[in-house]
Amino acid sequence: MKPLLVAAVLLGATGPAGAQERVPEEEARAIARRLLDAVKDVKLPLSTEVDADKAFAMRREEFGALVLPDRRLEPGLFDKLDKEVVPVGQLWLRNLTPAIDGKALPGDKLQTVKLTVQEKEIEVVVCQLGLRKADGKAELVVLSKGTEPLARLALKPATEKQTLPLEFDPVLEGQERAHLHFGLAGKFQARFTVVPVR
User: Fold this and answer.
1) b/e per residue, 130-158, with b = 16+ CB within 10 A?
2) Which helix (H) or strand (E) holds 30?
3) DSSP 124
4) Which of 12, 41, 28 is closest to 113 using CA atoms?
5) pLDDT digits over 54-63, tens only?
6) Which residue has the higher pLDDT, 11 or 172?
7) What is the pTM assigned to this prediction?
């Protein structure tokens, strides 16, 4: 399958209207490679070593989200954290934007990347995920355009099994928001909220 056609899954789901589905692994990897190629000239706050072969993606109608783990994300990492942020992955959003304290973040705080898919230009948001210790506790931070975190997320012990180092389970709240429950190396989880782009 051609990369341009594969990347088109971020434009919308191919299943029944309203259905939420996981993107097949092969397609997710192809999408990840296309996104990484599009972002290679963009300066992101953290230096990451993401693994496109371990991409995890979900889609619903015209919405899509994809995560890529950093090669450093493993269970033992949590025992080595200090105040410095350690990169653990990237989050890509199509037609979604992060929501903090119930409000959508303004576009000027988000790093976006444009790419052409089937002669149509699309824009996706890229966020970086990092771990650090603050006040003696590990937390997941979300960054996009600058080094100041957009969000600081509390970590809880993982309750779900996972096969990839970085996954998420989207829990919908009506038509207006979704909570992405991140699973981190099968050890911890954190919740991050996104809303449709208006």
Assistant:
1) bbbbeeeebbbbbbbbeeebbbebebeeb
2) helix 25-39
3) E
4) 41
5) 999 999 988 9
6) 172
7) 0.90
